[in-house]
Automatic annotation (TrEMBL):
InterPro entries: ACAD10_11_N, AGP_Transferase, Aminoglycoside_PTrfase, DUF6285, Kinase-like_dom_sf
Entry-linked Pfam families: APH (PF01636), DUF6285 (PF19802)
Source organism, top-level taxon: Bacteria
SUPFAM superfamilies: Protein kinase-like (PK-like)
Domain Aminoglycoside phosphotransferase: 18-235
Organism: Actinomycetospora termitidis
Protein name in UniProt: Phosphotransferase family protein
Domain (DUF6285) ranges: 350-431
Length: 436
């Protein structure tokens, strides 16, 4: 019996069996197990990065939601990690259902359920936003989300012209009103448990806070959470259904333009989160291949922001690979062989290892594209910068921020597009509709 199994057995006063770590969750560990036959889930902070305040806050959300009729698993235990579990944790009942977006969006098994989900999501979000903040006393209030997000971005001191264009638009077009409510903060496909009746439980409350309730609506509609599907609400259906379900409970229909503002904000927010997660690896607090590869996904969110703002199309630059040295096996041959070994030969049979093998394969593909396509893309981007009157992305980002360049001017817009599309062609060209 492992030390974690022993700790859980002592904590619950039960025999713990079938303890397995699953792939869900980038910021927290997720384990499934049985305690005297009862199916449970452990959510635990990585021991290197304990966050007891956030875990206590999540437990408060569970209790408030259970009292208000928001679908949520039963909370079994919560701890600060001072016991043998080793880091702050929640233990909850394990419900039957599906969370994996690929299955929910594509398997025939869920075809009848998909169309019902956007309206259900709207109803449940309205219930969450009606929670009494006094029932979740540790929630932090975010009074100026744009300033808060910009400060997080600035902490990395890295030029991202697309984000500067998005920040500029967000500041110039604030949404009407400034409502305040309990906000889930990560209500999207992947954090929602679906069963045959539809939405069975809302999971992962670690980003909950007090803020504008429309933030949850914009986050849910962000393209990142459609996982390749077309429909605007998590890939399941139109936002009109989401708004209609929300109005059934809240009594008022959300304004589409306000939700669009929060959708642009969501794109910027996701880009910043990707960079924050990568810093856990780069800064040494948690060495993790998963976090390192996630950092390269920030450019996907930049692309989405430009797409919503109408500043980018759906075409990637065509570029030929750099000539090979002539040595055989080539770089492509070697990386293909390594990726095949990781995915097909070295990965054990458990879900977590299979997931990490796919992450490793994606990382190797990024390396290959950067080696073969990177030099030409860098050269072309330098030409775009020169036409905009900038020496590099640092100058482009700075002048977008100080207002001396306007993203509506075509040479500037072309440089912003190039900064994003060049990096996206390396990190994930298939993210663009029709990408290769």
């Amino acid at each position: 019996m492992s030390s974690l199994e022993e700790a859980l057995s002592t904590l619950l006063g039960a025999s713990v069996t079938d303890l397995r770590r699953v792939s869900a969750g980038a910021s927290r560990e997720t384990w499934t197990f049985e305690a005297d036959g009862r199916a449970l889930v452990l959510r635990r902070d990585p021991p290197e990065v304990p966050r007891p305040v956030e875990m206590r806050r999540e437990a408060e959300c569970f209790r408030a939601c259970a009292a208000a009729g928001v679908p949520i698993p039963t909370l079994v235990a919560v701890g600060d990690g001072s016991d043998a579990v080793g880091s702050p944790y929640l233990i909850m009942e394990r419900l039957d259902g599906e969370t994996l977006p690929g299955r929910l969006l594509r398997d025939e098994r869920w075809a009848d359920v998909r169309a019902r989900l956007p309206r259900q999501f709207g109803r449940v979000l309205a219930r969450i936003h009606a929670l009494d903040p006094a029932d979740v006393p540790s929630l932090e209030r975010i009074d100026d989300p744009v300033d808060s997000l910009r400060a997080q971005h600035d902490a990395f001191d890295e030029p991202r012209p697309a984000l500067e264009a998005a920040f500029r638009w967000l500041s110039a077009h604030p949404p009407s009103g400034t409502g305040s409510a309990v906000v889930h903060g990560d209500f999207r496909n992947g954090n929602l448990l679906i069963d045959d009746d539809g939405l069975a439980a809302v999971l992962d409350w670690e980003l909950a806070h007090l803020g504008d309730p429309r933030e949850d609506l914009g986050w849910l509609c962000a393209r990142a959470w459609r996982f390749g599907a077309v429909e605007e609400v998590g890939g399941f259906g139109p936002r009109e259904e989401l708004f209609a379900g929300y109005a059934e409970v809240a009594g008022a229909r959300p304004d589409a333009d306000d939700v669009r503002w929060w959708e642009v904000y969501a794109c910027v927010h996701w880009a910043v989160i990707c960079r924050i997660q990568a810093e856990r690896h780069l800064g040494g607090s948690e060495r993790s291949m998963e976090m390192a590869v996630l950092g390269r996904r920030a450019v996907e969110a930049e692309y989405d922001a430009l797409l919503v703002l109408g500043l980018v199309g759906t075409e990637l630059p065509e570029v030929a690979a750099a000539p090979s040295s002539g040595e055989r096996p080539t770089v492509d041959d070697l990386l293909d062989a390594i990726a095949g070994a990781v995915v097909d030969e070295l990965a054990p049979a458990d879900d977590r290892s299979r997931y990490l093998a796919r992450v490793a394969r994606n990382g190797l593909q990024i390396v290959r594209r950067e080696l073969t396509l990177g030099p030409e893309l860098t050269r072309r981007h330098a030409e775009c910068l020169a036409r905009a009157g900038c020496a590099d992305d640092v100058e482009l980002a700075a002048r977008l921020r100080d207002g001396s360049l306007d993203p509506d001017d075509e040479p500037v817009a072309a440089a912003v597009r190039s900064a994003t599309l060049s990096r996206l062609a390396l990190s994930n060209p298939r993210y663009v509709p029709g990408g290769r």
